[in-house]
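The instructor's notes for this session suggest beginning with a concrete chain rather than abstract definitions. Hand out the sequence below and ask the class to guess, before any prediction is shown, which regions might be ordered.
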Amino acid sequence: MNTFEAINSRHSYRGKYRSIPVPREDLTKIMQAGLAAPSGCNKQTTSLIAVDDPVILEKLHHIINPPVGETAPAIICVLTQRINAYRDKCFAVQDYSAAIENMLLAAIEMGYQSCWYEGHITDEDRIGYQMAQILGVPDEFELVCFLPIGIAETKPLAPGKKPFGERAWFNLFPTTK
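After discussion, reveal the predicted structure:
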């Protein structure tokens, strides 16, 4: 698969996963892809924890409500540190977003499916914080996202996308006439 095939094949998969374990070597490759992402002023604010232990997965899924990704044989938790960089600006959101996209593309390349779950766990109920407590994450880190990783039980469906010309232009924003 080339880069463009991976990009166009990647969709958020919210279905069930087969109960086939994800080898640690594959999880390592996916996480390495995430850590290879660009980082504002090279602050490297993103850290990762892969969870493939069924007991820990069960504990995490017990607090994720409503349940999502609960049949995935592994998940990758994305942590960030709010470190100021250039002109006292923090690029943590951009850093972990780039890392997540790299991991989603790597997962597709390797035959896995995933979904970026962030809003689901960073809401007022603080599920991400509860997950971090289970994983022993120090307070200077925030668990902002998790990616279920596994082989899809059903074929992922591609979402409808607006045509290129409705969202991308050359030189100027189009004027309406």
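Then share the key points. The CA atoms of residues 18 and 153 lie 5 Å apart. The helical segments are 3-9, 24-35, 54-63, 92-109, 127-135.
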